[in-house]
Amino acid sequence: MFDRRSIHVALLLWGSIFCVIAALCMYMSRNFDKEKRRWLLLFQISSAVLLLSDALAWSYRGGTETEAAVMVRISNFLVFILSDFLLFIFNGYVCCYLFPECKTPIHLLHKRKYKNEINFPEKRIMAVYLIAVAGMFMVVLSQFTDLYYYIDVKNYYHRNTGYVFSVLIPMTGMLLELSFIIQYRKRIKKQIYISMLSYIILPFIASIILIFYYGISFVNIAISISGIFMFISAMIEQNQNLAQKEQEAVNMRMTIMISQIQPHFMYNSLNTIYHLCDKNKELAKEAISDFSYYLQHILKSVNRSVPIPFNEELRYVQAYLKLEKMRFDDDLNIIYQIDATDFFVPPLSIQPLVENAVKHGICQKEDGGILVLATKEDDGYIEVRVSDDGVGFDTEKEKNDGKAHVGIKNVKQRLYTMCNGTLNVNSKPGEGTTIIMRLPKENKDEDIGNR
């Protein structure tokens, strides 16, 4: 039969276990900000030791053996001193978010000479650190004076007359902490702000209750709950930052890809149009229209970070191929086998594949060749296939210039990131190349194009 003491110890132990798990997660999380990760890791470890010490203090309470006498004294000492130490750690954690230039006490001392240039509450930050240190000093002093508590001959813990100071000292630091968290709250995200408030408000309320009622470790349980909030909010922030960095990487790859578009194609297209103006004015007008759409699509794609309808990309590819067809005439034969159009693709994802087929496959073949662009629905996927009967290449070996492979790798990464799609390349020297793009059928949902 479980009594209140057993349940209390069990809650403290489970809280300690969770803090250990959170600390392990933070330790293995290499993408988190180094200083924030260090402070939060230290916070979770200290919280785990605090809760474990409290559980041991309750477990050995009233024991008659020598081991109980030792453990009751050590565990109660750790509970008191870690409560103040956590205030010190929390202050550093808060400064990492609100004042990155003052993320440690040492940084704070170094920045004092720049206080007119940097907006931060130097005196309040330093006061919280000093209050935490003073609190730890008072706990040590209490071991010799029994100021806060004493352990009787039966190994029972008892509060003493100065116990209220063990509560008031960290509460004072928390109030100062609260003042600049609220003042500079706009510098942090909402979930981080709420988690910081939870560490101050929950233990603050628990401390007031504990002054009048003893029997349950309200403060330590409140600390463990706020530790959960801080860990969850930190993980949410990390995921958001990773998603943002991933999107920035996608945009960067898009910019790089656009910058790699060969100026030779533009020069050759303009040269073709120039000669058509004398030979075939109608065809020249058509070429100008295609070239204009080609440039327009590139410029629009620079600022796009979501998939676009396949028909829009197809129109761009057709404009490109029509211009190339005017240049190479019978050396370039194009076949369209479009059986599916109601889906989305990353912008500038099919054209680079087609350009590689023309430039590195068909144009390298003496008598030219055939390019096939096909789409179809197949077993839960949309399949886009670009194939040519050009010179081909050995997929196990990179070409010396590496340019075609860079373009394909770029498309492959964006396809996976934006559409959860895949891209496979099959090629044999002398036989040609086939590139197959596969996208999940849910990619047909128009919401993807509007994210």
Question: Quick recap of the structure?
Answer:
This protein has 451 residues and is α+β, with helices and mostly antiparallel strands. Helices cover 64% and strands 11% of the residues.
Key attributes of the depicted protein:
disordered C terminus, 64% helix, five-stranded mixed sheet, single chain, 451 residues, alpha+beta
Tell me about this structure.
35% of the residues are buried. With 451 residues, the protein is α+β, with helices and mostly antiparallel strands. β6 and β7 (381-388) form a beta hairpin. It is built from 13 helices and 9 strands.
What low-confidence regions span 5 or more consecutive residues with pLDDT below 50? 113-117, 400-404, 445-451
Shape: elongated
Q: β content, as a range?
A: 5-15%
- The overall strand count is 9
Give the helix/strand class. alpha+beta
**Which series of helices and strands comes N to C?**
HHHHHEEHHHHHEHEEHEEHEE
Q: Provide the residue-averaged pLDDT.
A: 83
Task: Report how far apart the termini are.
Answer: 55 Å
Helix content bin: 55-70%
Largest sheet: 5 strands, mixed
